[in-house]
Amino acid sequence: DAKTTQPPSMDCAEGRAANLPCNHSTISGNEYVYWYRQIHSQGPQYIIHGLKNNETNEMASLIITEDRKSSTLILPHATLRDTAVYYCIVREWMDSSYKLIFGSGTRLLVRP
Amino acid sequence: GAVVSQHPSWVICKSGTSVKIECRSLDFQATTMFWYRQFPKQSLMLMATSNEGSKATYEQGVEKDKFLINHASLTLSTLTVTSAHPEDSSFYICSARYSWYGDEQFFGPGTRLTVL
User: Fold this and answer.
1) How confident is the model over A60-87, as a mean pLDDT?
2) Is B58 an 8 Å CB contact of chain A?
3) Residue A101 backbone phi and psi in degrees, to 5
4) Proportion of chain B above pLDDT 90, given as a percent
5) How many residue pairs from chains A and B have C-beta atoms closer than 8 A?
6) Is residue A47 a contact partner of residue A37, using CB atoms and an 8 Å limit?
7) Cβ-contact B33, B93 below 8 angstroms
8) Is the dihedral angle over the CA atoms B106, A105, A88, B62 positive or is it negative?
9) Among A39, A72, B83, B114, which lies 20 to 30 A Cα-Cα from A52?
10) What is the mean pLDDT of residues A81-94?
11) Whole-angstrom distance, CA of residue A89 vs CA of residue A101
12) How far apart are CA A41 and CA A43, in angstroms?
């Protein structure tokens, strides 16, 4: 089972920041947090990942709390094309391999 | 970023036939590839993990004799759905990772399988 919980849906206005929360209270010390998004009928797109420090790239910022039990993905200026399902995933070591186990994700709707 | 392709993008077949789906990493060598399945309005479910040159490891509840996975090279993995039935109709997505301990995993565009 996935180690993360996310709100099922959120919305925000175009041009505003979208802040997507994620809880991962059972995360282990060496497990990374990954964020992907999936636009309808496409494969998931990698956004960002982190261990314990905040991370930023051209797409988004990832804020991880000090106790690592939760994180927030920030899309600084959301556009209509950011409408998608966003998955927060804790990468797990299982059966001698790292695996991404998807939870149910957050459906983000960006309003004009 | 790294590119993963899948072929075909969609396929329709008759019940009882077998269907092969290819997954290729186009600009990197993938030592590990993953196959996921996604039913409508549901999340992705991991089916199996395959390392190049080794047998695939299947997740609990996934029939290895029905979903044959071959990872013959560092850039190609195939999933064969044998004796397909309508309940196998789904969106199949592959994913590939750079290296044994790589941090990034990239996904293909998916293959829509419809079994009549």
Assistant:
1) 97
2) no
3) -105, 115
4) 74
5) 56
6) yes
7) no
8) negative
9) A39
10) 93
11) 7
12) 7
> Are A101 and B46 in contact (CB < 8 Å)?
yes
Tokens of residue B104, six digits: 């990034």
Report residue B59 as tokens: 């997740």
CA distance B62 to B46: 9
Distance CA A63, CA A19 (A): 10
Q: Which amino acid is at B61?
A: G
- Nearest of B106, B91, B81 to residue B29 by alpha carbon: B106
Q: Provide the total of helices (H) and of strands (E) in chain B, helices listed first.
A: 0, 11
Backbone torsions φ then ψ of A81, nearest 5 degrees: -75, -10
Amino acid identity, position B12 = I
Amino acid at A32: Y
Amino acid at position B108, single letter: G
Q: Do A102 and B36 touch (CB under 8 A)?
A: yes
